[in-house]
Structures are given as structure tokens and as C-alpha cells.
Amino acid sequence: MKAEDLKLVVQEKYGEIAKQSVLLNKTSCCGGTSSCCGDVDYTIFSDDYSGKEGYNADADLGLGCGLPTEFAGIEKGDQVLDLGSGAGNDCFVARALVGENGKVTGLDFTEAMLEKARQNNEKMGYSNVEFVKGDIENMPLPDSTYDVVISNCVLNLVPDKQKAFAQIFRVLKPNGHFCISDVVLSGTLPTKLRQAAEMYAGCVSGAIQKSRYLHLLKQSGFSNIQIHKEKQIVIPDSILANFLSSRELESFKNSGTGIFSITVTATKLN
Known about the structure:
The protein is α/β, with parallel strands linked by helices. It is built from eleven helices and eight strands. 35% of the residues lie in helices and 22% in strands. Strands 1, 2, 3, 4, 5, 6, 7 and 8 form an eight-stranded mixed β-sheet that branches.
């Protein structure tokens, strides 16, 4: 599938997720229906945010794969950018860390998600949180602006990850840093999974090899690259069976291929 087609798939599916209730998102993607995103359960990746200061349950759609704010080193007064900000969950947690004198910007290209995030922000009454529409591969944001960039289970959805990393490098201030939770692979996914749009939007088939991911970060100019947390994600057979025959499923499970969530930081040095 072409890059632009993949982006349309993501916009459509996450637009549908944004329009449904939080409860449906957390129990089963799209409430177990096949009308918007099939049987892919996006919440198999998610971590628990409920104890974090600034947490807003209405903004937590269960779409993350880590807690990037936990390792982001966000300080009072920082300018923070959240890529793929969704309904605003990580932005509101980041707002609790930057305080009144900092600023948090959420970037997303799905209109329904932006609308939901702005509604949530209006309820919270934050004047230093904003949500901007834009593509991560070509951000409508100025150079050298942010102290910290965060992102949660989003960059695996970006077709050209090298462009995304270059854009992150561009918008960070000198000595600024990022903290990203993302999905990576060890081994090769079966062709049917890699070609399935459902699994792409579900953060699986858009993932790349961990070694390549880290290489692209270094190639983009980042230093001090460090993985803080890594966990294996096990996709239930009931989901995989929608894309693989019983023989293919068994072969995949015995192949040694691993799907992992990692939380990684890196710095843009002078």
C-alpha cells in the first residue's frame, strides 16, 4: 500500500475510535464490531495511567504502548510537544509536569481526535495546552522550539520513519531530547500480517526492526540513545486467526519473531 493510502487508513480508523465511548475503546476496539477497525484490540499494548498527576480518564482511549512521560525528564517551564496526541492523554500528564509557566502542544492529523482533545482541554481549563493539526513527516511547527518531544505508540504508524525522526530533530531545541514509546520487531512478520491494513492501524505491521529503528535515530543525528523499558507484546490467537491460517499461525508462533514495546530517549546535542 502507498504511503498516502496508509495515512488515510490511519485517519479513518482513529477517527472512528475518537467518535465512540471511552468504555468501548477499553473493552474492545470499536466495541467488537467490524465496521471501523475489525477485531484488532488496540488496548493489548496499553499501560495504566490512572495514578499519574494530570490524568484525565476522558482523554485515555487505551491507545498507547508505554508511559513516555515517566522517562521524559520533563521539568517546570518546559515546552513539550506530543506527536500523535489523540484525545490528549499524554498532553495533560505533561501539563502537570511543566506547570503554569510551561507549554504543551499536541500534534495530530485526525480531525475527530483533535476535536475530542480540544473538548477535553476546555473542560480542564488549561490555557497553556494547545492542539495543532499536522503530519509528523512534515510538521507545521518552527525549528528549535521544544525542550522535550514525546510520543506514544504513534511513530510505528508513520510510513517514512526517517522523515519523522528528522522532523523531531528539527523542532527540538539544541540539547533538547525526546522520549518515545513505540512498537518494534525482532524477526520477520508473515506477509499477510505486513499487508493487512487492520494490523497496520493496530500498530503491528507498521513496526520495523528494533535494530533499524535505533540505527535511524543515530543516522538522524541523535545522541545518548537509551532504551528505558522493553516488554514483549503477545497478540492473542483469536486476533491473528483473522489474518493467518492455522498452519501459518503455528509457523508464526514457532518462528521466534517478537513484537515489543520500547520506551526510548535520545538527545539533540549542539
